[in-house]
Amino acid sequence: MLIPSPPCCSRSQQPRLAAPAQAVARKEKDSLDAALRAWRQARARQALKQPSAVLSEAVLTAVIASRPLTFQQLLQVRGWRRECVCAPGQDQQQF
């Protein structure tokens, strides 16, 4: 049974529940973005390359958007390569 809103409260005056959830999602996205950029920068320094040579902006954005939870899901992100996670000279077969 639906309970009608009191006449004093129009729909526009009712509290929005989605805003806090959106704020949390945005904060998580920003945190993931910062963490991936820091990882990319460290990997680039280690490989003596530019960060974009390690992971392009497009792939970084795709990883953030898809939020993979497993390595197999990460491999499904368009543009992701196994080489992204391997240090120079490291055997890629172990992944």
Q: What would the keywords be for this entry?
A:
single chain; 95 residues; mainly alpha
Short précis:
The protein has 95 residues and is mainly α. The protein contains 4 helices and no strands.
Query: Helix count?
Result: 4
**End-to-end CA span:** 54 Å
Shape descriptor reads: globular
Arithmetic mean of pLDDT = 76
Sheet with the most strands, sense and barrel status: none
Low-confidence stretches: 91-95
Radius of gyration: 21 Å
How much helical structure, as a percent, in the residues?
40-55%
Tell me the count of domains.
Answer: 1
How many β-strand runs? 0
Topology pattern, helix = H, strand = E: HHHH
Q: How would you describe what is shown here?
A:
This protein has 95 residues and is mostly helical. Helices cover 52% and strands 0% of the residues. It has 4 helices and no strands. α1 packs across α3. The C terminus is likely disordered.
